[in-house]
Amino acid sequence: MPRIRELGIFESKLPPGAHNAITDVAGVAVGHYTLIAGEGAWTGNGPFRTGVTVIVPHEGNIFEEKVTAVTHTINGFGKVYGFEQVRELGTIETPIALTGTLNVPRVADALMTIAIEQNPHIGLGFAESGRQGYHSVNPAVGETSDGYLSDLQARPIGLAEVRAALADAATGPVAEGVVGAGTGTSCFGWKGGIGSASRVLPRRAGSFTIGVLVQTNYGSSEELTICGVPVGQHVRPPKPEKRQEDGSIMIVLATDAPLDTRQLGRLCQRAAFGLARTGSTCHGGSGDFVVAFSTANRTPDRPAELGGERPYFREQPVMDLFSLAVIEAVEEAIYNSLFMAHTVVGRDGNTRYALPVDDVLAVMGRYGRHL
After folding, report:
1. Which residue among the candidates 145, 196, 220, 248 is catalytic per the annotation?
2. Do the Cβ atoms of 32 and 179 come closer than 8 Å?
3. In what order do the strands lie in the sheet with 29-37?
4. The domain 4-302+311-355 is classified under which CATH number: 3.40.50.720, 3.40.50.300, 3.60.70.12, 3.30.70.660?
5. Checking CA distances to 5, which of 71, 194, 212, 307 falls within 20 to 30 Å?
6. pLDDT at 133
7. Residue 10 pLDDT
């Protein structure tokens, strides 16, 4: 499947990074576990079209070296885990995991287990301090529903599957489409999934990188807009959509710029503009969340001193470029989640079809959008 940039119908003002993915931010890794099992009618233990995707901010112990982070709610109809503490303290201390809705508690529990294995003092305190019950861990888990194609009730994603996703985590190209947390999701009535993109800022803006990863599961077919063209008015799924859902999206932003939580929060708000470019109106029944983190600003779990120095970034002269980078990368990542997906038949024969590339190109051509 081609990414949208390879089709000659998409251009950007800012250039992408080497992989055009969130992993262009140095040290960031992405891993997937994909579960495709069973066919036909729902049994109470399948069929499954689900999975988990992990975004690892750096290669070290994330609990020991927390990254500066913020979460933002565009529309809050979702079952995310751990976001409130991120808002309060401004740090993330585990890998970020994305999965299907009812898997969230099991994935959070898995991240807790793994964090405790790596940091045995969690929940106990340190022997040298004599303090007990002082340290806890806050997993960060986001979700969209894959219930149209997969058995939600059985909740098959847990510790083994999260371990597999972490073992798969790599800093190179990111697998997209029907993979990991995107295995069973839909987008604009078509098969959606995982998408990623990045932008590199010019030298006058510090040559920083903005990376994006999305899990798409939102929109109706007639809303789909690609590069300003109302594609959804011309291209529809071959069968009427059996189930019209408001849907949801998870957007993860990463950067190597030394931004604080206020600055990251400003970028999170810009993500909604990239989402809107694709035709989304953020329906009332959707869970649209953004998580952003900086790999440059880290907080030790046990600082030797109360204070310390952090890189300082004066944003105002270049905030327009940062905003543009986020908007463009979110838009392109969503398109990649569509174009990289293939048709999937799920439980009870429910089907999400791949977006027909040739039909899309024909519409884009009629609107003069071939580059």
Report:
1. 248
2. yes
3. 29-37, 48-56, 96-100, 140-144
4. 3.60.70.12
5. 71
6. 46
7. 93
